[in-house]
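Lab channel / #folding
Pinned by the channel admin:
"Please post every new chain as: sequence first, then the structure tokens as a reply. Keep commentary short and put observations after the output so the thread stays searchable."

First post following the new format, from NK:
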Amino acid sequence: MKAFLGIGLLGAGFVRAMINKGDQVQVWNRTASKAQELEQYGAEAFDSIADAVKNADIIHVALKDDATVEEALAKGEAGLKQGAIIVDHTTTSIEGARQRTKKWKSKGFFYQHAPVFMGPQNALESTGYMLISGDQKLVKQLEPQLSAMTGKLLNFGEEVGKAAAIKLTGNLFLVGLNGALADTIAFSNAVGISSNELLQLFAEWNPGASLPARLKRMTGDDFTSPSWRLEMARKDTGLFLKEAENKGVRLNVIPGVAALMDDWIKKGHGKEDWMIIGKVE
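Reply from TO:
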């Protein structure tokens, strides 16, 4: 028997996929109607968290944040089966994941953080990526079931909280990417580039393909053989900042990048490769 707490878009997909694989799933959601909607697929919905987790060997959680996870688990504790495993897919703080692992173990239960890089369709189709770290004995026990929920289960080793750290790092990149794309769209509109022309450019020229090589270069130590000198990259940055200003367009991400470039140029690195801006000092 499984339980699932949190029937948002992700949770609903997970539950339907579990049922399709033959699992019995008891569900709860703060807005009860969302849990009840899954009864048409074979789930059993409960108004009480304690009732929803009764007799469940594994309780999956997909909620908003640390606070909502803490609240839900506290309300469900009375119904937990001794030795039950809590698998939390929520994006949470690193310390929160560590503390919950320790706390629930002291109570005779197991808490395993397993955040995901997945959308609703991924959850339904069991594709995407799930991250895990911590007690490797528990990870091995859970691996068959969690692997069935996702396209790829990524194990980051013994360190509790490592999966949470990886998830936050990945989300930081996505937020930054969207911010840069927002600047790109605003700039292109201002200089008369249509959305179709922008799509045509990126359909042919895919800078994302160079991401692994860029990351390797930026985290290295040698920037003395530049493919693009920092001072030249800063010159071009100045050009599109000036053009945006002339058109009355506000860019939000690029001014911060320009300031970072200026810092490295002041330190005497203008003639080195522009990827030096990613170096951690």
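NK: The first helix runs from residue 9 to 20.
TO: also worth noting, The mean pLDDT is 97.
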